[in-house]
Write a structure and sequence with these properties.
Elements: E1 14-17, E2 30-31, E3 37-40, E4 46-50, E5 56-60, E6 69-75, E7 81-86, E8 91-96, E9 99-104, E10 112-115, E11 118-123, E12 128-135, E13 140-148, E14 154-159, E15 164-169, E16 174-179, E17 184-190, E18 197-203, E19 208-213, E20 217-222, E21 228-233, E22 242-244, E23 249-254, E24 259-265, E25 271-278, E26 286-289, E27 292-297, E28 302-307
Antiparallel strand pairs: 1-28, 2-3, 3-4, 4-5, 6-7, 7-8, 8-9, 10-11, 11-12, 12-13, 14-15, 15-16, 16-17, 18-19, 19-20, 20-21, 22-23, 23-24, 24-25, 26-27, 27-28
Length: 310
């Protein structure tokens, strides 16, 4: 159990040190179905679960060897499985049912997501998404197929209701739509990015995608035909972004500019800047849950907590 040091604030943020207090390659922050933040601790090979009220617990993969967990999620019918991509060993770890299943991947894993009985893993070094099948009781994982993504893939979002997935061809500056059941691309839309498309947040019910561009833009794009609805200037070095659907706010951290832009989102998708807050150098990833915002601070091995619920 970690002691939360909440006494010293960074501007309007409260820093929460992670397991060893040293620099970490923090990246893909997540949110669980029961409302906790999921924080892969990269080189430590562990995953933290942080409740919005500050309660925290550590999940060990239990696997042997040096591990670097960049992306992880809780899967299974009740979140009983820890599914993680290991960049050091270039494999997929699935922990649960008193077992550890390790499956070699074709390329280094970036984003790990799950849909139905499948696990999708982006492999930018191979220009593809690798798809694996998973069963429980007994726990088994096996490779199924791959989807080619020339110039990518960067990021991954899956809409279970519509059966569609979205990723970027980063080098080509395009947003791609993929049929989840058929494993085939069904749309390819040019983005008006400044720099490269990096961050993707969605409001599937409204047919909206929010895109963070590395050169300092946030975009709203239609998921129906790919046309641009709105754009907003933000800081430079944008990577992972997050959308709070209840409060209709978009959070865009910029690692180069060391700030976080908070924007309101109209029901038509229009973006309007509310405020910009200083964060930390290389603070490039964010997650939001119940109005509580976490921004990663990799240099200091911590996350920065902001209460934006009011």
């Amino acid at each position: 159990m970690l002691a939360l040091l909440l006494a010293v604030a960074v501007g309007q943020f409260t820093p929460i040190p992670l397991s060893d207090g040293g620099a970490l390659a923090l990246d893909d922050l997540g949110v669980t179905v029961d409302g906790r933040f999921l924080i892969p601790e990269a080189e430590l090979g562990t995953v933290l679960l942080l409740a919005p009220d500050g309660g925290i617990s550590t999940m060990e993969t239990g696997a042997r060897g040096r591990r670097t967990i960049g992306s992880a999620l809780l899967g299974g019918t009740a979140g009983e499985l820890l599914i993680a991509g290991d960049r050091s060993q270039r494999d997929l770890l699935v922990v649960g049912d008193d077992r550890i299943v390790t499956v070699p991947l074709a390329g280094g894993p970036d984003y790990v997501r799950a849909t139905g009985n499948e696990i999708w893993v982006t492999e930018p070094g191979k220009d593809q998404i690798e798809i694996l099948g998973i069963t429980t009781k007994p726990l088994t994982v096996r490779p199924l197929t791959t989807i080619a993504v020339p110039g990518g893939p960067e990021t991954l979002a899956i809409d279970g209701a519509s059966g569609e997935a979205y990723t970027f061809s980063e080098e080509r500056g395009r947003l791609l739509r993929i049929d989840v059941a058929k494993h085939v691309q069904t749309a390819d839309w040019q983005l008006q990015c400044k720099g490269k498309p990096k961050g993707l947040a969605t409001s599937f019910g409204e047919g909206l995608a929010f895109v963070g561009c590395s050169g300092g833009l946030a975009l709203t794009v239609s998921l129906r035909d790919g046309h641009q609805i709105s754009k907003l200037g933000v800081g430079e070095g944008v990577d992972i972004i997050a959308f709070d659907s209840q409060r209709r706010r978009l959070y865009v951290p910029a690692g180069k500019s060391a700030n976080l832009t908070i924007a309101s989102v109209g029901h038509d998708g229009a973006l309007h800047k509310l405020r910009t807050l200083p964060t930390a150098p290389h603070a490039h990833c964010v997650a939001v849950q119940q109005g509580i915002v976490l921004v990663c601070d990799p240099v200091h091995g911590r996350v920065l907590r902001l209460d934006d619920s009011r």
